[in-house]
Amino acid sequence: MIRLENVAFSYGNKRIFTDFSLELADGAHLALMGPSGCGKSTLLRLISGLITPQSGRIAGLPQDGVAYVFQESRLLPQLTARENVELVLKSIENRQKLAEEILTELGLGDELDTLPSELSGGMARRVAMARALAFPSPLLVLDEAFTGLDERTRGIVADCVLRRLDGRTLVMSTHSGVEAELLGCEILRLAPLH
Ligand code: ADP
Ligand code: MG
């Protein structure tokens, strides 16, 4: 269980959260929704331990890293699709096979040796998704990860996420109720900042 208690977080003097609490049971599926700028990405970073609150407590953070798809795909440009995935699997046996399997499930079987600069935005997204799905963390975070995918591809990716999630906790941000539903998420609406 990840627990945020009375968390306050500001960037400089811009307050994003003042007294925010949340309990996230192991294996929960949660979708954060709300207008751009309301703090979805900030909350994902807090839940993952990438940033720490100025006050309040966060307990139960995964110790060995979080599987994270950032709002930008953040692939290493000099590495091919498969190398980008394998990179996070250093200590895992059969990492080549695993990377190939997940990329293929995501419809990238023909792009295993393609560099990010030669992939479309939607393909790069799926490589980032494959990298996160392959990483053995109890928490998977998807920050607007389905943006730019057509409906059919979105369905394929959602199926792959659900298959590969294997009881892990999922927290995502999205502007789409359909995506939240596809992934079986409870929805948490964040109010706009003012
Ligand atoms: P969302 O993901 O819902 O669009 P964010 O969490 O990215 O919202 O941002 C919440 C607010 O915090 C926005 O007003 C944004 O401009 C601001 N913000 C985000 N990141 C930073 C940062 N690194 N430094 C300063 N302000 C930031
Ligand atoms: Mg965001």
CATH class designation = Alpha Beta
DSSP helix count? 6
The distinct ligands, each listed once, are: adenosine-5'-diphosphate, magnesium ion
Report the major sheet: 5 strands, parallel
The CATH level-2 architecture is identified as 3-Layer(aba) Sandwich
Helix content: 25-40%
CATH topology tier name: Rossmann fold
SSE order: EEEHEEHHHEHEHE
Classification by helices and strands: alpha/beta
Shape: globular
Which radius of gyration do the C-alpha atoms yield? 17 Å
For this structure, what is the CATH homologous superfamily?
A: P-loop containing nucleotide triphosphate hydrolases
Mean pLDDT: 94
Low-confidence stretches are none
Distance between the termini: 31 Å
Main-sheet strand order equals 5-6-7-3-8
What does this protein structure show overall?
The protein is α/β, with parallel strands linked by helices and 194 residues long. It has one domain (28-46, 61-189): Rossmann fold (3-Layer(aba) Sandwich), CATH 3.40.50. Helix content is 31%, strand content 25%. The protein has six helices and eight strands. The strands form two sheets. Strands 5-6-7-3-8 form a five-stranded parallel β-sheet, sandwiched between helices. Helix 5 links the parallel strand 6 (139-143) and strand 7. Helix 3 (95-105) packs across helix 4 (121-134). The longest helix has 15 residues, at 151-165. The protein is globular. The two termini are 31 Å apart. The mean pLDDT is 94. Bound molecules: adenosine-5'-diphosphate and magnesium ion.
